[in-house]
Write a structure and sequence with these properties.
Strand content: under 5%
Largest sheet: none
Number of domains: 1
CATH class: Mainly Alpha
Shape: globular
CATH topology: Urease accessory protein UreF
Helix content: 55-70%
Structural class: mainly alpha
């Protein structure tokens, strides 16, 4: 008779929950949102693995990735999530980005409510993850890093389909972004509200110009 399996530790259970929430299989509809990347690809500003890596690194270090990381960190450290959710909406630079933020927030709260049986007010996904992550036995920087990895991973899959890039090239881009993800997560773990803000103007403009594309595959 086999010995009983050792019990699964709380950090492992928490990690499984977080990975599930951030998985492409979790029905957020992220595959429909390019975050302005579709315009950049159509304009040939992103046309290869190297230009994709540069674009995503800028988004992580100076754009939405940075702000999402800080908002998640503030929620993890006990700040009012509803207030942070309003701040997240105020930071959306364009109509499309605001619609993306709201739609994914509604999908996240609806699915999580169905899984857990507890009500969660719709809010920006990074804020919701931070609020839920308070009770997890995971380091804040780890929660933030996994969230940023999912953000970058979704955009890589979009580029793989639309540039197009090979699957291996896409994974090489994502792997090359790991140091950036870790650096941003480490910074955000102790960041304050005063650190919010960004300077990825090309990405913000791309999301505005996306509205005028004659042919669009993605919603943003």
């Amino acid at each position: 008779m086999r010995d009983a399996a050792p019990p699964i530790s709380p950090p492992c259970r928490d990690l499984l929950d977080l990975v599930q929430w951030l998985s492409p299989a979790f029905p957020l509809g992220g595959f429909a949102y390019s975050h302005g990347l579709e315009w950049a690809i159509a304009a040939r500003e992103v046309s290869c693995a190297a230009s994709l890596r540069r674009w995503l690194a800028a988004a992580l270090e100076h754009g939405a990735g940075r702000n999402d990381a800080i908002l998640c960190s503030l929620a993890l450290r006990g700040h009012d999530p509803l207030e942070l959710a309003e701040l997240a909406e105020a930071l959306a630079p364009t109509r499309e980005r605001l619609e993306e933020l709201r739609a994914m927030g509604v999908a996240f709260s609806r699915t999580l409510g169905a899984l857990s049986g507890r009500a969660l007010a719709p809010m920006a996904v990074p804020v919701a993850i931070g609020a839920l992550g308070r009770d997890m036995a995971l380091a804040p920087a780890s929660v933030i890093a996994l969230m940023l990895q999912a953000f970058a991973g979704n955009l890589v899959t979009i580029a793989v389909r639309f540039v197009p890039l090979g699957q291996t090239e896409g994974q090489q881009v994502l792997a090359a972004l790991h140091p950036t993800v870790l650096d941003v997560a480490a910074f955000a773990a102790t960041a304050t509200r005063d650190d919010l803000g960004g300077a990825f103007l090309r990405g913000d403009m791309a999301s505005a110009w996306h509205e005028t594309l004659e042919t669009r595959i993605f919603r943003t």
